[in-house]
């Protein structure tokens, strides 16, 4: 069996169009805002990260509980 063609293809592919780039700079803006106290920035950055992680993990958690 020749697996060379399978190994040359990427495992994960982007299903969106390459012309559409959804980039959020909210985290970077939060961390670089020196007008806010350090712990306030840290709390905001943590919230931004948790929102992103929730969106990424929700399908996996949902799949896990279907068994």
Helix-strand blueprint:
Elements: H1 4-8, H2 26-32, H3 38-64
Helix pairs in contact: 2-3
**Percent range of helical residues:** 55-70%
Total DSSP E strands: 0
Q: How are helices and strands ordered from N to C?
A: HHH
Q: Tell me the distance between the termini.
A: 34 Å
Low-confidence residue ranges = 18-22
Multimeric organization:
single chain
SS summary, helix count: 3
Main sheet makeup: none
From the alpha carbons, calculate the radius of gyration and give it in angstroms. Answer: 19 Å
What structural category characterises the helix and strand content?
mainly alpha
Report the β-strand fraction as a percent range: under 5%
Principal-axes shape call = elongated
Provide mean pLDDT, rounded: 75
Describe the structure.
The longest helix is centred in the last third of the chain and has 27 residues, at 38-64. The two termini are 34 Å apart. With 67 residues, this protein is mostly helical. The protein has a domain at 27-67. It contains three helices and no strands. The model is unreliable at 18-22 (pLDDT under 50).
């Amino acid at each position: 069996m020749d697996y060379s063609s399978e190994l040359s293809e990427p495992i994960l592919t982007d299903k969106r169009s390459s012309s559409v780039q959804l980039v959020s700079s909210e985290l970077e803006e939060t961390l670089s805002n020196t007008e806010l106290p350090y712990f306030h920035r840290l709390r905001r950055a943590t919230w931004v990260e948790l929102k992103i992680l929730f969106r990424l993990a929700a399908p996996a958690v949902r799949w896990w509980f279907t068994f």
